[in-house]
Specification:
- With about 190 residues, the protein is of the alpha+beta class.
- The chain is built from six helices and eight strands, in the order αβααββαβββββαα.
- β5 (about 115-125) and β6 (about 125-130) form a beta hairpin.
- The radius of gyration is 19 Å and the shape is globular.
């Protein structure tokens, strides 16, 4: 094959491969993760409230590797793989991914189990997804690179930050979980709540 034909063959293939992966669809601009949580731009306050009262379980930690600081005992970083298997877990994962990414796998909407593997670092006793490295999304037997987006970090490690947000903004008290989860008030979908 001549050089010209090789170029005409490989250039479109290479260009197509660059545009076929999962991509961030919602850029939060220069907002920090803390600003994104304070404004609840990811819409996760309701999810963490429901976790607090036991209406939704946190995703299961499938595996974790932690690195330890040399001068102390606290983990400074690591890699953790989470499994989303319940309806509540899958619903919130699909909501976050659908609102913030495009070109998601077709079978994400019907998968009974989805896993996420992320590299994280710890600062001020909170974990955060590393911004410089793609996470890995596992749907069925396939895996996909998932670029960083604040809402991904907020979903996986936002527990204490959303509890602090609730106190800081003096949000109404959460009802206790009655015999059934339907006793919880309906989700507030207004912006910033």
């Amino acid at each position: 094959m001549s050089r010209r034909r090789l170029i005409w063959f490989f250039v479109p293939c290479f260009a197509a491969s660059l545009g076929c992966g999962i991509a961030v669809s919602r850029n939060l601009g220069k907002a920090t993760l803390n600003e994104a949580i304070y404004d609840d731009v990811c819409g996760l306050q309701d999810y963490f409230d429901r976790r607090t009262v036991g209406a939704v379980r946190a995703p299961e930690v499938v595996s974790t590797q932690e690195m330890e600081k040399t001068e102390g005992r606290r983990s400074s970083g690591g890699q953790t793989r989470f499994a989303f298997t319940t309806d509540g877990q899958l619903d919130i994962l699909r909501k976050v991914l659908g609102a913030n990414y495009r070109r998601l796998p077709d079978d994400l909407g019907t998968a009974a189990k989805v896993e996420l593997s992320v590299r994280w670092s710890e600062r001020a006793e909170n974990r955060f997804v590393v911004m410089t490295e793609d996470a890995e999304l596992f749907v069925g037997k396939e895996s996909y690179a998932l670029p960083y987006q604040h809402c991904l970090s907020a979903l996986l490690f936002g527990d204490s930050l959303y509890k602090s947000r609730r106190v800081m903004l003096n949000l109404p008290a959460m009802p206790t979980l009655a015999a059934n989860p339907d006793a919880l008030p309906p989700r507030d979908t207004s912006p910033g709540q």
